[in-house]
Amino acid sequence: SGRESSPCFQRGRDGGLRVLSNGNIDLTKYQKVLQLTDTLTREGRINKIYIIGDKTSGNYDLLFQSVGYQGYKGGTITVWTLVKVSSTYDIDKVVLEGYEKQTLMSKLDNAFYSKFALTDITDAYQKGELFTTDSSKNNSNAVSGATYSANACINAVNCVIKYVAQGGISR
After folding, report:
1. pLDDT for position 147
2. Is residue 171 very low, low, confident or very high in pLDDT (cuts 50, 70, 90)?
3. Cα separation of 75 and 104, whole Å?
4. What is the SS3 assignment for 22?
């Protein structure tokens, strides 16, 4: 059985969301996207999407909860991914929520999660630059000794990238 927690976000003075801790978060005040279609892939799935801010302004945030498959011993990793929306869709933060059947999770440290910051998801997707554990490729996020766990986390983030880039969220 894995660790379960939810990230805590707070809107900063600059209007952006910031991760405070891995405590509980009350998302009831945010608009939840209820119609999730085509979110299941062989790599993972998206469980929840929240719109944070005024979508009509063109500058808002999307908060995704996604699960990555193909981890150690067939396990999974669940993450929250914060996507900032303006003229582009940009990954701002990725935070671990929980995992199943994974070991060596301490190797997935803050440096690992900070490598997911990505400007213009759609452009990266169109160039075929999804995240990978292959250190010879662009957007590599390899972790020595925890490759399968890193792979599951990467799959969770790549689900978000694919969903956004393929038009799952309209402006």
Report:
1. 93
2. low
3. 13
4. coil
pTM of the predicted model as reported, rounded to 2 decimal places: 0.81
What is the rounded CA–CA span in Å between residue 116 and residue 144?
17
* 31-32: strand order across its sheet: 31-32, 44-52, 60-68, 76-85, 89-100
**Distance of CA 51 to CAs 61, 63, 80, Å?**
6, 7, 13
pLDDT tens-digit series, residues 10-55: 544 444 444 444 444 455 556 666 455 556 778 999 988 888 888 8
Separation of alpha carbons 20 and 87, rounded Å: 26
Q: Tell which residue, 59, 66, 76, 77, has the closest CA to residue 16.
A: 59
- Per-residue pLDDT for 89 more than 60? yes
Long-range contacts of 12-20 (CB under 8 A, 24+ apart): 15/53, 15/59, 16/61, 16/84, 16/92, 17/52, 17/61, 17/63, 17/82, 17/92, 17/93, 19/82, 19/93, 19/95
Q: Is the pLDDT of residue 124 over 70?
A: yes
What are residue 106's phi and psi, to 5 degrees?
-65, -20
Q: Do residues 145 and 120 make contact, with C-beta atoms less than 8 angstroms apart? A: no
